[in-house]
Amino acid sequence: MNTKRLLARAVENWPAKVLSLGLAIIIFVFHRMSRLEDRFFPVPLQIEKLGALMPSSSYPRMIRVSLRGEANSIYSILEDDIEVFVDMEGIEAPGDYTATVQWRKKGAALGVEPLQITVDPMEINFSLDYKVSKFVPLVASFRGQVDPGFALTSYSLNPSQVIIEGPAELMVGVTELYTEPVDLDGRQNDFTGVVGVLQQNPLVIIRGSGRSEFNGSISQIIPVRNILNVPIAITGIKDGLAGELEIKTGNIHLEGEDQNAVDRFEPPEDFLRVDCSGIGGPGNYILRVLVGSAGDISVKADPEEVKIQVTLEKGGKR
User: For the ranges 161-165, 219-223, 290-294, 307-311, which has the lowest average pLDDT?
Assistant: First the structure.
C-alpha cells in the first residue's frame, strides 16, 4: 500500500517535476561553464608525412591555440603539451593543397576535463614541390671598417660550404649562402671567431650546426703612389761637351707611412738626373739615374739606368 502511494506521489504533477529537473541541470551546467576560463598561445605547425615533398610556398608557421577549461587545469598545461599538425599522408605529387589543421594532447594536457581546444586558422593553403639537397659555398659578409692604414687581406671559413635542402624550383636560384656580418671596426690584427649562416629563405633548410669558424688576416697598408713622366736632367757635363738622353723622362714610385705626405709630394726640378762629371769625351755611355731626397718617403726610379750620347759642342775642341 505504501509502495502504491509512493508511486502515485512520484508521478503526481510529473511534467512540472521533469521541467524542474531539466532547469536544474541547465543551471548546473551554466554555473559550471561560467567558471571556465580561456587561455591562448601560439604553437608551431608541423606538416607530417610529406615523404619526398616539401613546402614551396609560404604558410602559417604558428597556429593560435585556444584552451577553455578550469583555471587551475588550463594554466598547468605547457605550450609543448599541445601539438598542432596537418597530415599529408597519401600526397605524392607537387601541387597546391588545402589541409585541415589538427591537434593532439600530450603531457599535462592528457586527462584534463573539461577542456575545449580550438585552433586558428582551421585550414591552411600551401604548395608542395620535390625535395632537393645540394652543397653551396659559404661567403662571409662584413660590417664596419678596419683602422685607417690597415686592410683585411684574406679570410677563410671552416666549413667553407654547407648542405641545404629545399623545394626543387627554388633551389635552382640558390648558388651561395652568406654568413652573419663579421665586425671589422677598429681591428688591426688577425682574428678568429664563430659566425652563423644567414637563413635567407625560411623554405630552405640549412643542415648541420648553421655556424662556421672565421679566420681573418689583417695587414698594415703601405701608402704608395706612382708619378709618371718626370724629366731626367743632365748634370756635371764638362765644358765643350753636350749630351743627348735616349729616354728623357722616367717614372717614380713612392712608398711611405704617411698617406697625406705621399699624396702631397711633388718632385722638384732635377729630382731625377744623371751625373756626367766622369765623362771626359764624346761617346755613348750608360749612366745610373740618380734620385733626389723625399724625406721619409722611399723613392724608386724607372728606368734605373739610361743611355746618353755625348758629343762635342759646336765650336768645341777635341
Answer: 219-223
